Structure formats: C-alpha cells, structure tokens
Amino acid sequence: MKLPVILTPGEDGWIIAECPVLPGCISQGKTKEEVLDNIREAAELWLEEEPAGPAL
What we know:
By secondary structure, the chain is of the alpha+beta class. The longest helix is centred in the last third of the chain and has 18 residues. It starts with 5 loop residues before the first strand and ends in a 7-residue tail after the last helix. This is HicB-like antitoxin of toxin-antitoxin system domain-containing protein.
C-alpha cells in the first residue's frame, strides 16, 4: 500500500515525516533514508492498531 508522506526539515537538523491520511502518524530521522524507514514502520503499526484502516 502506498501512502502520501510529507517531509519537513526540523529546527534541530532532524527531518520530520508525517502521513496525513493516518492521524497522528509522525516520525523523524537524521537522514531521508532513516526518516522514510521510520515513517514506514510507524504507518504499519498505526494500521495494525486500526482494524478498519483510516477513515477517509
């Protein structure tokens, strides 16, 4: 499943990732590769906790 992700530079040098279709699904990382891995894991966990999936 492909989900949209928004990357934003943080003030402290970290990159912030947010998946807007999954409320509260946010992560961060030092590199683009790291933050994408982290948000992928966060989205998988979010979807495991929401049996019906996101309310779109």
